[in-house]
Design goal:
333 residues; single chain; globular; seven-stranded mixed β-sheet; five-stranded parallel β-sheet
Length: 333
């Protein structure tokens, strides 16, 4: 059985930052990632541009270079691949942790590899950096499971000359709607509030508002989708009771429900981490980021529970140093 000082579950930027600090501390580390390296970033829209500047995405004091002021998804993916190579991080991709047992200094992990093979590991300490992008918020309406519905957006080409509904009012929805429109889709944006989110990127807002004003993107505000059918969707005013005459049917080929994501609460509970019931915030020491389970630390956006807009790469990347200062000291005590 494989023994490690620390196992980091999650191979995103925060997980990699934790691995770098573990290596600097001379600890035997392993990163286990159920997808590809920085899997969440890989699943971002193909042509996405980050809101932040390159220096705020850097980990391990390794400079990030981008052609323009704001880095692209492709540049970020290349950067994190180079980071993993440069620091010779021990990363197992396409391997899912299915069970955690044991206790501090003797955690037992069972995993399932892509081939279907099972593996087991022993770790003295654990860091959970699983992010939130794998668990989309659901609409909870009939038809949400149809093949035409997606909670992720990648690129526009397949939707040329199609009627596409984009549900949401924040950055992901605005970016998808604009990209789809510019690539020949007939786009309807549907948002439960009266206006677009105030947090939309400053360069997206005027573009989106101008397209709506010109009628190039149809916008239905104060509106919710009540059902999805193979060739249409049903919509109603947000605060309606679905009375007669309130529900409308709209022709539709594809739906992108881009209404946000949430941490995997079941995985945290499986590890024994306690969650605050209302906002699903896990308990952790704000100084050390150790959870209520001795020896299990939390890193990245999972610390924020449902308030996923509080922690990004820009601040989550510092959790590695914060955690490893305490973790390494305890291992050496």
């Amino acid at each position: 059985m494989n023994h490690h000082d620390v196992i980091i579950i999650g191979g995103g930027p925060t997980g990699l930052a934790c691995a770098i600090e573990a290596k600097r501390q001379g600890l035997n580390h392993l990163v286990i990632e159920k997808g590809c390296i920085v899997n969440s970033l890989y699943n971002y829209p193909t042509n996405m541009v980050f809101f932040t500047t390159p220096d705020l995405l850097e980990i391990g004091d390794m400079p990030m270079v981008s052609v323009r002021e704001k880095p692209t998804r492709a540049e970020a993916l290349k950067y994190y691949r180079l980071v993993s190579q440069r620091f010779e991080l021990n990363v197992h991709t396409y391997e899912k942790v299915v069970k955690i047992t044991g206790s501090d200094n003797a955690f037992h992990l069972q995993t399932m590899q892509r081939s279907g093979a099972e593996a087991e590991y022993i770790a003295r300490k654990l860091i959970l950096a699983t992010g939130y992008y794998d668990k989309p918020n659901l609409l909870g309406i009939p038809g949400e499971d149809l093949p035409k519905v997606s909670h992720y957006y990648h690129e526009a080409h397949p939707y040329f000359d199609c009627d596409v509904a984009v549900i949401g009012g924040r950055n992901s929805a605005a970016e998808a709607a604009l990209d789809l429109y510019r690539n020949g889709a007939r786009v309807t944006l549907i948002h439960h509030s009266a206006r677009l989110s105030e947090k939309i990127k400053y360069w997206l807002r005027p573009d989106m508002e101008n397209r709506i004003t010109a009628g190039e993107i149809k916008a239905l505000f104060d509106t919710r989708v009540t059902a999805i059918r193979p060739d249409s969707i049903l919509v109603a005013p947000t605060h309606s009771t679905d009375g007669e005459g309130e529900v409308r049917e709209i022709k539709n080929d594809f739906v992108f429900a881009l209404i946000g994501y949430k941490p995997d609460a079941d995985f945290l509970r499986m590890a024994g981490v306690h969650l605050e019931p209302r906002r699903m915030r896990p308990f952790c020491n704000p100084e050390t980021l150790e959870s209520n389970v001795p020896g299990i630390y939390l890193a990245g956006v999972i610390i924020a529970g449902l308030d996923t807009n509080e922690i990004f790469i820009e601040n989550g990347r510092h959790h590695g140093k914060q955690i490893l200062a305490d973790l390494a000291a305890k291992l050496r005590a």
